[in-house]
Amino acid sequence: MSTILRVHTRTSATRVLATSAMLAALLLVLSVPAQAAGPARGDNDTQLGDTFSILLEGPYAPVVRVPNLGLSLVNLGDGSFSTTKIFPISGLPKQDREHAGRGNHDRGGEGDDKIGNFFVQFGGMFAAYDLPGGALTMTFTGRNVQNVPDGEGGTYIVGTFDLDILEATGIFGSFAGGHNHMVDILHRLADGSFVEHCICIIRRGA
Question: Given this model, what pLDDT does residue 126 score?
């Protein structure tokens, strides 16, 4: 029994170390695309850059209040979408970031610099972004991920996702036909809920 316990303990320790190392490595990778994507010209003036980066972060929740984003390819109120918060990184017009910080969208607590909402189908292919000045619909086209147990009955889904931009409104209109590269740590908890930490690098089409 003691031999089995020692083996189990070593296995658990190895798993924790491997998970920690993988998360540390991915967090390092997460910081690189954000730097590579900026500074775009939108960081310094009122113009939107050709590339912008945003952070999706926080727990996912069901869509309770369905926004009218002017998107025709998705129905955010059909029960298939979950939502989480969007935070700015680089490339967005400064005035839009500041306006969002003064209470645009459905804010959390004081000091929350959330600028919008992200919507995704965990059982489907579509995603939507509600941002200051417009909205975008995207579809998943590729993924390169691996699952890492969190040691508590949940799983870290770690890696990258690629999406094509199908439609875009407002200041993002010219991004239709563009591309989104996600670098993601998606935590699926033991109770089946999800917590997001994902950098999105969004580019105009060629």
Answer: 98
For residue 153, CA distances in Å to 27, 159, 172 come to 22, 20, 40
- Give the distance, in angstroms, between the CA of residue 197 and the centroid of all CA atoms in the same chain: 6
Closest CA to 37 of 179, 187, 196, 145: 179
**40 phi and psi, to 5 degrees?**
-85, 165
What is the C-alpha separation between 61 and 117, in angstroms, rounded? 11
Q: What is the pLDDT of residue 68?
A: 94
Contact status, residue 184 vs residue 156, Cβ threshold 8 Å: no
- Nearest CA among 58, 12, 5 for reference residue 198: 58
* Percent residues over pLDDT 70 in the chain: 69
Q: How far apart are CA 84 and CA 74, in angstroms?
A: 17
Task: Say whether 25 sits in a helix, a strand or coil.
Answer: helix
User: Cα dihedral sign for 137, 141, 144, 149?
Assistant: positive
Q: How do residues 38-55 score in pLDDT, each as one tens digit? A: 444 444 456 898 999 999
